[in-house]
Amino acid sequence: MFSHRRTRCTVLAVATAVLVLPGCGGGVVDDPPTVPEQGDLQDQQLEDQVEETDDDQPGLGEDQESGLSQEVLEGRVGDQVDFDGEVSQVLSPRAFLIGGIEVGEDPLLVLGADVPTALAIGDVVQVSGTVVDFSIAGAEEDLEVNFAEEALEDFEGDPAVQATSVAVR
């Protein structure tokens, strides 16, 4: 009886192993993983960040606090965008930066006539506006304000957002 019980346990163990082990092994891989090319990766990142808003205008998805950058907006001058972002610096009552906190990340300049007066570093804001190639003279004319040029001269010629709406969330 002892040997019968031992044989039965052995048979059960082997049967269990036969059923379980095939699911653990590495089967044959049909196609090795591919690495996307640089252009494909940038296109995919842009597609991941851009979504159509209810009014069929291109915008950036919600909760993109650090995903929005000058690089994402490059080549989108004239496009309407909607996005959320964290304020990293307030430059003037009508100009502030989003992002640029991480090493190698360029901050995004946001300008607007209706920037909240109590805006502070760390505030999360919802912005709607138009992508522009920033120029100090053009912004001063559009917003009817004189900026301290030294605060904005590094952004000359870079993509920026001229906001039509800025709301602290």
Question: How would you describe the overall organization of this protein?
Answer:
There is one protein chain. The longest helix is centred in the first third of the chain and has 23 residues. The N terminus is likely disordered. A hairpin with a 2-residue loop joins strand 3 and strand 4. By secondary structure, this protein is an alpha+beta fold. The chain has 5 helices and 7 strands, in the order H-H-E-E-H-E-E-E-E-H-H-E. The protein has a domain of 114 residues: OB fold (Dihydrolipoamide Acetyltransferase, E2P). The chain has a 5-stranded mixed beta barrel with strand order 3-4-5-7-6.
Secondary structure layout:
Layout: H1 2-24, H2 38-49, E1 50-52, E2 58-60, H3 70-73, E3 80-92, E4 95-98, E5 108-112, E6 124-133, H4 136-143, H5 149-152, E7 159-168
Parallel strand pairs: 5-7
Antiparallel strand pairs: 1-2, 3-4, 3-6, 4-5, 6-7
CATH topology of the domain at 55-168: OB fold (Dihydrolipoamide Acetyltransferase, E2P)
Strand order, biggest sheet? 3-4-5-7-6
Mean pLDDT across residues: 74
**Termini, distance in Å?**
76 Å
Query: Which regions are unreliable across 5 or more consecutive residues at pLDDT < 50?
Result: 1-5, 50-66
Instruction: State Rg.
Output: 27 Å
* Main sheet record: 5 strands, mixed, barrel
Task: Describe, in short, the structure shown.
The chain has 169 residues and is of the alpha+beta class.
Q: Can you give keywords for this protein?
A:
single chain; 169 residues; 5-stranded mixed β-barrel; 5 helices; 7 strands; 30% helix
